Amino acid sequence: MQTSASGPALKSDPAAAEWNGPGRKNRAAPQPRGHRENLTGYLFMSPWIAGFLFLIAGPMVFSLYLAFTDYNLFDAPRWVGLQNFTDMFADPRWRQSVKVTSWYVLIGTPIKLAAALAVAMLLAQKRWGQSFYRAAFYAPSLIGASVSAAIVWRALFSDGAVVDRGQQLFGIDAGGWIGDPEMIIYALVGLTVWQFGAPMVIFLAGLKQVPKELYEAAEMDGAGSWRRFWSITLPMISPVLFFNVLLETIHSFQIFASAYIVSNGTCGPGDATLVYTCYLYDQGFANSRMGFASAMAWLLLVAVGLVTAVLFWSQKRWVHYEEDGR
Predict the structure, then answer these.
(1) Whole domain around residue 169: which residue ranges?
(2) Mean pLDDT of 25-48
(3) 88: buried, middle or exposed (CB in 10 Å: 19+, 13-18, 0-12)?
(4) 3 in helix, strand or coil?
(5) What residues does the ABC transmembrane type-1 domain cover (predicted)?
């Protein structure tokens, strides 16, 4: 046994070696179990990651490249720079598509949200058969975007159909709306308003969170129903209203299937329902101008992003959050 000036050397103690000074224990080395758990997590996420890279991110980057090329789906892309964008701004049909889409967003979205809020306020009250009515009003939103619903809607507004015969009962002989360039857009707006079920459910959830004490106090002060709506209901559900406005505005910019089916694939008589995505589809697949269509798609993305930014900027003026939620 070796000795030192202070006495015999102590044998190494594994338990004592774990301590680094009084009351301090050395940190244990990272265990390989954590690495295995991370690897397992990435393994389960790999289908989503692969799908995002190859089905979303990859095509988006490639379409950005195609936006600056002349590509007809058959020949190799040919770089043309900003030619697609200059041709787009000079195209009268493109300007018509912007006009129709803007009109649809500005008219259809507010009417849809107003109908959703009105029905939600009715369903928020306790009535007999409340669950049935909620399901009945929500059902159209499940099938409203389907091709079959658009076909039925086109049949309802055709010449000699239900709407046309109903007009004749009131002495209005205007014919069907589908063939009328001035009326077909209203049929399209009616279809989107009919699908108010999703925002209605969100409004209903927001209305349930408004304290009843506020309505009772306002009623005791003599406030009428309209005053209570403007001073209590709207401010209290403004975050929900902002969410619905944002979501429905983005959806309105993306309208395609209903406009294409209602107009029987012609985008309406006289381009009356030539929404932006309908013209994009026509240029990309009917005319094989995929570079031009890609430029249109990216311009639409920028426009939706700008509208979204404006909505977020404006929320500080009309959206009211709880003080601790700011």
Answers:
(1) 107-325
(2) 73
(3) middle
(4) strand
(5) 98-311
